[in-house]
Structures
1.
Amino acid sequence: MKTPSVPKQTSQTIRNLINISVVVVAVVGAACAAAQGKDEPIQPIVPVKITNPAKVELGKKLFFDPRLSKSGFISCNSCHNLSMGGSDNLPTSIGDRWQQGPINSPTVLNSSLNFVQFWDGRAKDLQEQAGGPIANPKEMAFSHDLALEVLNSIPQYRAEFEKVYGNKELDIQLVTDAIAEFEKTLKTPNSRFDQWLKGSKKAITAEELKGYELFKNSGCVSCHNGEAVGGNSYQKMGVFEPYKTNNPALGRAEVSKQDADRFNFKVPTLRNVELTYPYFHDGAAKTLEEAVDIMGRLQLAKKFTPEETASIVAFLKTLTGEQPKLQLPILPPSQNNTPQPKPFD
Ligand code: HEC
Ligand code: HEC
């Protein structure tokens, strides 16, 4: 290409002007990006700082230990598989002796960000939650006493509890405290969307950004917001149209006994939602497209076009964060006096 003949002096001035404007654009751009991050209804996940590694390690062992179940076969990880987004990818879970579970298993990833635990919020925090499944006849079907008997019979476990908790007698509070400490480390920071929130414009594509704008402007963010993009309120499933399901769960009403709370569920997190199919408390929506379409119609009286749905789904997939890097724990062996598993009775 032929260089236009501009007098030297002028061309230098233009170049300077261009340089200045590049700097101005960069500064304004960065300021916008920072302001934009602050004003958004979704905040980036704050990575965890591990303060008590020995407790986390003990909790991890317990999370993976199937001997906390009657069958000796089911661990927390059976239904909250950390190789698959912290869920089991089944409509409803499989419990002791292949019993059909009543409700979809939510992910344990980022569960420390939930304002309460369970779909109906019946546990106030992770520690209170962790005692539930061990003694639930449809899940691990054990008793807290038997679980403690198993752990007490294994010298390596006794030594680890002593290291973390001193000479306290082993009780279920210590078991659930250690499991909760491990669960608190299961955060998934640095998703592409979080990188975008922090100002990295190229972290998401134009299509994904379009999906986010739709998500925001259609009103999805009124229920799915904050660090977890959910997990911070109860909301009715079926605001504009009733939700049809054969699942008998009533949601929050089961705890509050208030009719007004019928079909109110804790809003699930949308972090890592690409990994946690199928969707809804009954696991009835097999794909994200289906879930988004239902949410639009039932929660917002909005019928999205297939293109709009595709953009929202593309956005939702940018919420997949860095999965916890775990080394599989090696569990201490049972001893001659360890209670035997009962898988078939
Ligand atoms: C048989 C399958 C199964 C097993 C085993 C199991 N869970 Fe769950 N978990 C579920 C289901 C189903 C729910 C939802 C129950 C509800 O909301 O009523 C759930 C809920 C949770 C929640 C609440 C998440 C949220 O978003 O509300 C946490 C945390 C959790 N489980 C951790 C654990 C831990 C820790 C263990 C081991 C001690 C465990 N689970 C064992 C199936 C299981
Ligand atoms: C009025 C509050 C509200 C609004 C608005 C809302 N949601 Fe939801 N969302 C919920 C509740 C409650 C659930 C759980 C419902 C259930 O399981 O029965 C849910 C579940 C979901 C799920 C399934 C998550 C899972 O793990 O099962 C997806 C995906 C979702 N919403 C996306 C959206 C999108 C996209 C929009 C906007 C089009 C939206 N939501 C608008 C309250 C809302």
2.
Amino acid sequence: MSFFDIYNIPFKDLEQGRIHKFEFDVNNDFFENFEYSEYKEGQVKVLVELTINPDNLVLEFYLSGKIKVVCDVCLGEFFHPIDYHTTLYVKFGDYNTQWFDYDQEIVINRAESNINIAKHIYDFINLALPIKKVHPLDQNGRPTCDPVMLEKLDELKPGHHEEKEQDIDPRWEQLKKLLN
Ligand SMILES: [Zn+2]
């Protein structure tokens, strides 16, 4: 028995043509058990609405919760909210595909009676988060990044000192005059 067995949806005996609802919880254990997970902490509620058709399954995913991420600006950690809806199409075939394609379609062997959605939940969490993750703004519209860290990072930036010197470099002033 694997930790991820709780993310199995047994669909074989379910009635066709109507919607079947399932609820799953994603918590720190989920990420701990997930090999190579980029995230370590988070709570996400996952609602799945499954429709069974003769040739395929359609799974509507609704994810809501928060994931701890690293801010790309100040490198501090914060919980990023998630509120995401997407659809996964599952075609019946003679084999199982590991990854969904551009159309979010996968193939499972028609002999299967379960579909495990743990990996898909992980992929959808990734899609739900923005590529650039930055601390949110406060009520006054100011960034909530760590100010001490920002100052340190600014000092470490290449060119931090040279730029200042360049402004007062007389040769630079001369060049500017020539160009004007
Ligand atoms: Zn930040």
